[in-house]
Automatic annotation (TrEMBL):
Protein family (similarity comment): Belongs to the cullin family.
Gene encoding the protein: Cul9_2
Listed InterPro entries: Cullin (IPR045093), Cullin_homology (IPR016158), Cullin_homology_sf (IPR036317)
Domain of life according to the entry: Eukaryota
Name by which UniProt lists this protein: CUL9 protein
Keywords: Ubl conjugation
Originating organism: Aphelocoma coerulescens
Residue span, Cullin family profile domain: 138-240
The UniProt record lists the keyword Magnesium: no
Keyword rRNA processing assigned: no
Length: 256
């Protein structure tokens, strides 16, 4: 048996959490440049007993190997979720909860190391890539509708504390769409909801903030162009009103 590795301790979350991460590791070989062999598991806890979850045997050298192992664990967990809840009416809400749980597990196990935050996003992206075309359409529409509800709630809560923090929090799970084929269908549905909001409620700083946060999720840049065209239209309208006032002043001066 190998010597217990000090930098990869066993971690087990208390059973009251919906998801309980655990990492067990052993080092084999010399202390310098040792190869790390890991068994990473992410189980679901209900009633104090583990009900099963994603697991992966990891044999990697150094940080990169462990992060890739974690990526695989996350991808398995997300794929299982999408298979079970892909047609659920509250899919987007449950997806966001899963993201927050897995992000919390990542921070608990590995801290704020960029390699593991990246592995988290890659795991989600890998699972979303496995969706069939029809399922991807359904998922994209659900995500766009969920964001529309969240944005309207945030607009109604204007003046309350922490709107930027809330905006970043509910947008973060969707950043992983960047670069995926899913981003095209997501953008298609998102721009329709955006158009409805602009027609019924007018522009808002929130819309620009969203584009800044998840602009890479809009490969055709339709939302950006819509907001840019609206701003240009408002500027032209302002200039036209100013021109009309100047013309009235000229006529009044001529009458005098």
């Amino acid at each position: 048996p190998g010597k217990a590795c000090g930098h990869a301790p066993a971690v087990a979350a208390p059973p009251q959490h919906p998801l309980s991460p655990a990492v067990a590791g052993q080092c084999a070989g010399p202390a310098h440049g040792a190869t790390l062999s890991l068994r990473l598991t992410l189980g679901r806890w209900e009633g104090g007993e583990e009900q099963g979850g994603a697991g992966q045997d990891c044999k990697g050298s150094g940080l990169w190997g462990i992060s890739q192992c974690w990526r695989g664990v996350v991808q398995q967990q997300v794929q299982r979720f999408l298979e079970a809840a892909g047609q659920a009416p509250d899919l987007a809400e449950r997806y966001c909860r899963l993201y927050q749980r897995l992000r919390g597990a990542t921070e608990e196990l590995f801290g704020q190391q960029a390699a593991f935050v990246l592995a988290l996003g890659q795991g989600f992206a890998g699972a979303l890539l496995q969706l069939s075309f029809l399922t991807a359409l359904h998922v994209s529409e659900q995500f766009a509708r969920y964001l529309d509800v969240q944005i309207q709630e945030l607009r109604r809560a204007a003046g309350s504390t922490g709107p930027l923090e809330r905006l970043q929090q509910f947008l973060e799970p969707f950043v992983v769409f960047s670069g995926l084929e899913l981003a095209h269908t997501f953008e298609h549905f998102y721009r329709h909801y955006l158009g409805d909001r602009l027609l019924t409620q007018g522009p808002s700083w929130l819309e620009g903030g969203i584009v800044e946060q998840i602009g890479l999720c809009f490969p055709s840049r339709f939302p950006q162009d819509m907001l840019s065209n609206l701003a240009e239209s408002e500027e032209l309208q302002r200039q036209f009103c100013l021109f009309q006032l100047q013309e009235q002043d000229k006529r009044l001066l001529e009458l005098d």
